[in-house]
# Entry
Amino acid sequence: MQDQISRAEAIGAAPGAIIHEDTAAKWFLVSSVAYFFIVGIIALLIAAKFVWPDLMGTISWLSYGRLRPLHVNGMLFGWLLAADMGLAFYVIPRLCGVKLWSEKLGMATAALWNIIVLGAVVCLLAGFNQGWEYGELPFFLDVLVVVAWILFGLNVFMTVAQRKYQAMYVTIWYTMGCILWTAFVYLTGNFATLFTTGTNQANLNWMYVHNAVGLIFTPIGLALAYYFIPRAANTPLHSHKLSMVGFWSLAFVYVWTGAHHMIHGPISQWLQTIAIAFSVMLLIPVWAVVYNLFATMKGQWHQLRESVPLKFLMSGVVFYLLTCFQGPMHSLRTVSAIVSKTDWIPGHAHMAVLGAFSFFAIAGTYFVVPKLWNKALHSQSLANWSYWMLMIGGIGFYVTLWLGGFWQGWQWNTWTIPFIDTVVALKPIWIVRFVSGVMMFTGIVMFAYNVMATALGTHEESAA
Amino acid sequence: MFKKADTSALWAVILSLVLFFVGGILTTIVPPMVDHTWAKPFENNDPAKGPTGKLVPLSELELKGRAIYQREGCWYCHTQQIRTLLADTKRYGWKGVDAPISTPDEFVYDNPHMFGTKRTGPDLARVGGKYDTQWHRTHFRNPRDLVKGSIMPTYPWIVNDPKEFEALVAYMQTLGRAKDWRPNHDYEK
# Structure
């Protein structure tokens, strides 16, 4: 399968071969990086509000309850999913050995996506919030998201249909899986919920929330990891069989686990038990993927010293493993009784979406931007710094929130401790979280600046 | 079977969807058909079976208050569920009486549901009748005036709008009241 990657790339270099336009990929990447920076400011603000609750406290549209959904939606859809789509527009045509089916349609999709994100900013700050986590966007924006997703999917599927090589590399299955599953998961969380109430609605909501991570960001993230790790290290993928095990077990297992968000809550016990059982089974796809990617790097680890994309990619794989080990553990009733509803949970969620999937997207962006603009990366050392800032800030963030959350959960379980004492006790945790956030944000600024400077800069020499 | 998906995109599509839909259907469409308590509003007249009472839909004013709760994102910091944990029933109880565990039949009219995922502040499932209007007024104006060390935001734009404030408090007072759980109907107004 690795042959196929190299073949596709070689063809790009051969005289008279296909020239990829990549305009759609560029549009998506540039806007996603810009949102990463802008929404990063929002992230800092809400972290600051935990330490200084009166900060901008009299302005309704800057209050915590308005900014938090903007942070979550902005990072998930404005940054991460947009970057993933841009990278898919780069990767898929190369793996298929053909041009993107329609560059114009891709650009239209990017434009529509920007309209959605800007609409989301206005609506969320104004308090037009549907009241479902990850499903906050008002109905008309939900409809636009569906339209944009269909356009994106159409482009990818048509490209695959016209492919030159019959055999499809893992990355292609994961991308196709992501497009299909996302469609149904999104419809469940944003449309089916409209016809339900109470526990029934919550069940659909959690199916969506859980699978937004499990069947949207996981498959597209892994698609990128499977492509960029062998590419950046210039080494073949360890095992095709293992990648099949990982993919097909993911397809079957993930969707069952939504109810683990309501362990001990007002939802049928048997449904909780099913969710727990399948959550534990998640270890199968995770192990298959992580083992495969690690084994791919065997004998190649020294390359991490030189390559920023590889640093991000392999740290992302480690975080992926950790997150996916935590997930099944949280779903166990005894563990849930301690960590559920505490600050542990944002620690866990950030490790998945920032530590794993954003790291994959950052790596991909660092890798492709010099190629897209045919220029050397503006600054290698700045890229290296951005890695360490995001890495150290990230670890500081995750670890303090786990410790703090565990402690908080333990205090709540000792019901004689007044609630407010458990709030005051967490103050130092939130201060460290804020400082870690500042470090991560610095990393984001360095990343965004480096990407923009490469795109706009004058380093004419082409990337090696 | 899976090998074929390596070369056939159509087969890959079919297989991915079939595998997905098994769990998808069994965990979303089937559960409410099996467990009828999800859709049957709470009603109990027999004290031997636990707290008595009846779930009624919210009034127009209370719904307006609920919309404010939704708009301001109170639900990012407050859950509404007493879980099947002793610590929850004790912590959110009142004068030695344990808070009843939340059951699906108490939430049948909730749209959107407000179960929540994070307790930055305390659970509000049984907060109805815990405090009077004056307390809420002071608390929403500045929580730190009443509870030192609180990190709840201030809500001057709600308190300064009598209609909004009245609606929000009316909603707060409904929370957890379908089950008449406090002895002697001892609730603040």
Summary: Chain B touches chain A through 77 residues (CB under 8 Å). DSSP finds eight helices and two strands in chain B.
